[in-house]
Amino acid sequence: ISKMYHKEKSIHMKSSASSLYNSLSVLRIAPRCLNCFTVVHANVVNMVSASWDGLNYSHRQLQSKEGNVATSSSLIMQAALCVLPSRDLLVLTSQKGIQMYESDGSIMVYWHALDTPETPTAKVVFARGIAAVREKYICVGVSSGSVLVFDVPGKGSNIILSEVLEEHKEAITDMASECSGNLECIADLVSADDSGLLCVWKSGEDFHLLNKIPGFDTCCSSVNLWNGTVIAGYGTGQIRLYEGVTGILHAEVNAQARWIYSLDFAPFTGLEREELCLISAAEDSWVRVWHVSLTPETNSVEIEHMYNECVTDTQICGAKFCDGDGYAFAVTSYDLSEIIRYTQA
Amino acid sequence: MSQRTLPLLIINLGGEMIYILDQRLRAQDDNDDKTQRVMNDIVATMFNKAFLEELLQPQDLYSHRALRTVLTRLAHTSIMRLNQASMDKLYDLMTMAFKYQIVLCPRPQDLLLITFNHTDTIKELVKDNPSLVNQINEAQRQLIEVYTPLSDGDFELIRHTLLVLFQDMQIRVSIFLKEKIQNPNGHFVLQTSGPVPYGFEVPGLIRYFNAKGQEVRRTRFPSGGNYTSALRQGSFDLSGDRVTILEMDPSTTSNSTRKQKQADTTPNPLAKEELNLLAKLMGGMEVQKILNVDTGFKVNLLALDQEEEGIGISEGTAHESSRVINIQATQDQLASTELARIAGEFDEGGSLTEGPGNKGDDLLAMMDEL
Predict the structure, then answer these.
(1) Mean pLDDT over all residues of chain B?
(2) How many CB atoms lie within 10 A of CB B321?
(3) What is the predicted ipTM?
(4) I need a surface site. Which of A69, A105, A217, B251 has the fewest CB within 10 A?
(5) pLDDT higher than 60, residue B81
(6) Phi, psi (5° rounding) for residue B74?
(7) Whether A28 contacts A52, CB under 8 Å
(8) Is residue A197 a contact partner of residue A212, using CB atoms and an 8 Å limit?
């Protein structure tokens, strides 16, 4: 399959994107109709709802609020739109803690403060890494390496911290949950950290650690989970595909010439659930699209390069598919006040 | 947000400032002794033990305003004086030069190599003064002690903290535009060719493994760029080849001994004649010696007939106005009111990283005692 993409009209934001891993989050509100994008700028989240053709859009800027403080100057490390069966939530992680809002950013439903030391210490404290897991969990990572598990009711603000998972020793960078719908998959969540360590978990009343895949002292900045396969992007510009539960390395790609900042995937329309489009983006200005196929019978994985796009003179920090089948993707870069969109030609 | 950013920021910005001032003074003034004295005084302050200790405390980054104050104080530790507009211009240049280095930094820990490049060059400038060289060596030892244990992730956080500070600064600098390292829209040019960073592989290879971890197959893909293998690792020692080519020492890119020519009147900002690098940057400068008992002298970094356009620097909350200062080596009419307006706009309001209490006060108080 050859996919060629062309550039569409960009969506302008009120402020530029900060250089954070996985800086772009996309919510698909209706197929081929509307997308909601969130992009972090320092202590503010730019939210844009855009029509499919990018011609109609509305903005909102959400300022980081912490506890009783009306606005906060603490930097936001990540903003992610989380999809649970009963509701969508916007989760923000910052130096001070974790905020959860209704997905349009209108109301804050929950605030969790991190323990921050009174006087500055060398080890900075922040939260980063967000994933919605199964029916009712939102998991958030912390700079200490802890993973906080929040139990989220179908509606309302009675969200509680139900568990703290302590396996990582370095700051969490990214987390991803299994959303293939494949009931045979045991693993529900993968967490990644600054040392490249990957932890694979099963969710439940008590989360259970299934496997630890060591890193090579290189940051794993972005991670995905599909049908039990962990797809991870590293600070060395490499992508690795592992079988999550066993830790077997299927393939390693020398993908990019600079630190990878974003990985995302979309399954192909109408094809077997074991095929997907993968998109990687890095500070080297390249966005690359790959075709990944998993064959459960032979337990093998194939990754094929499909397409390159050079977003000239930009350090890309976010690249996401706008829809479920890889037809369109959007890109954000440091210092750029636009969301650049591409669709298949 | 990283608590370890300030020392790298001050030393690198201070380093840029020292290069620029050294070049300017030597080009304008035959009195090498006076220039050397200014350099020695600034270096002595910047690498003062107590000053460095204060910098090395884990702490938040200063705001632009506090930073500018510290650097202005540093520039004025000697007999040289800069007026407000000149200092503003110098600050813009140093920050854009350093921003370029941070943006292009291939791996986060290379920030340390860039810092060492700066300390190496400063050492060279004061090499005839053993006590200053010792101070710089001592500073480098402390930097090595504090920074070499940091992980990739720690350095990436430092880099992220710096990128937040410099976010949306798109000041166009004539020499950067001319050398094609900056676009007309202010964004830096990012090459998709050249050596990959140390520890990276050239993109283009996919390797497959069996359950025992043995490689069983490889395939290739076109990477689009023109990348080559990594160079050797730079040295993180007190001295050594840093390998990185990122530091922007003007003396390596132009003939630094050439005196500034009388500025010509063509309006072409990218005139091809080879002016002294700083003359291109500054558009012409004057050093006014004050003929009185005071041996001090003023440096004016702006030609009298230079036009400046542009506005200030955004600090996070955005409004959609163009935020560019276009520093051109033109000789158009100066509107002194325009300069005053620009100088006024640099006095920005509260910034993102300014917390309660005044950061930098301790540092400034200490500098007064030095």
Answers:
(1) 71
(2) 9
(3) 0.92
(4) A69
(5) yes
(6) -60, -45
(7) no
(8) yes
Angstrom distance (rounded) from CA A49 to CA A68 = 28
> DSSP secondary structure string, A48-101?
EEEETTSSSEEEEEEE--BTTBSS--SPEEEEEEEE-SS-EEEEEEESSEEEEE
CA distances from B82 to A6, A205, B144, B312, B366 (A): 51, 66, 33, 20, 21
What tokens appear for A56 in the block?
A: 């109609």
Tokens found for residue A239: 């992508």
Q: Is the pLDDT of residue B350 over 90?
A: no
Closest-CA distance, B133 to chain A, in angstroms, reads 29
Q: Are A177 and A164 in contact (CB under 8 A)?
A: no
DSSP state of B217: E
Q: Which residues of A254-285 are buried (b: 16+ CB within 10 A; e: fewer)?
A: bbbbbbbbbbbbbbbeeeeebbbbbbbbbbbb
Interface test with A, best of B221, B226, B246, B314 (most A CBs within 10 A): B221
Q: Give the global pTM.
A: 0.81
Q: Residue A64 corresponds to which tokens in the numbers above?
A: 């980081």
Q: Tens digits of per-residue pLDDT, B114-160?
A: 999 999 999 999 999 999 999 999 999 999 999 988 888 889 999 99
CA distance A249 to chain B (A): 6
A43 vs B168, B202, B316: nearest CB: B316
Residues of chain B positioned with their CB less than 8 A from the CB of A173: 153
Determine the distance in angstroms separating the CA of B251 from the nearest CA of chain A, rounded to an integer. Answer: 27
Tokens standing for residue B339: 């300069």
**Chain B (198-227) residues lying within 8 Å, Cβ to Cβ, of chain A:** 199-209, 211, 213, 219, 221-225, 227
User: Are the beta carbons of B192 and A239 closer than 8 angstroms?
Assistant: no
Q: Does the structure show a pLDDT above 90 at A183?
A: no
* Residue A315 C-alpha, separation from nearest chain B C-alpha, in angstroms: 8
Question: What is the gyration radius of the CA atoms in chain A, in angstroms?
Answer: 19
Residues in B closer than 8 angstroms to A75, CB to CB, are 1, 164
Query: What are the residues whose beta carbons fall under 8 Å from the beta carbon of A58, sequence distance 6 or more?
Result: A48, A49
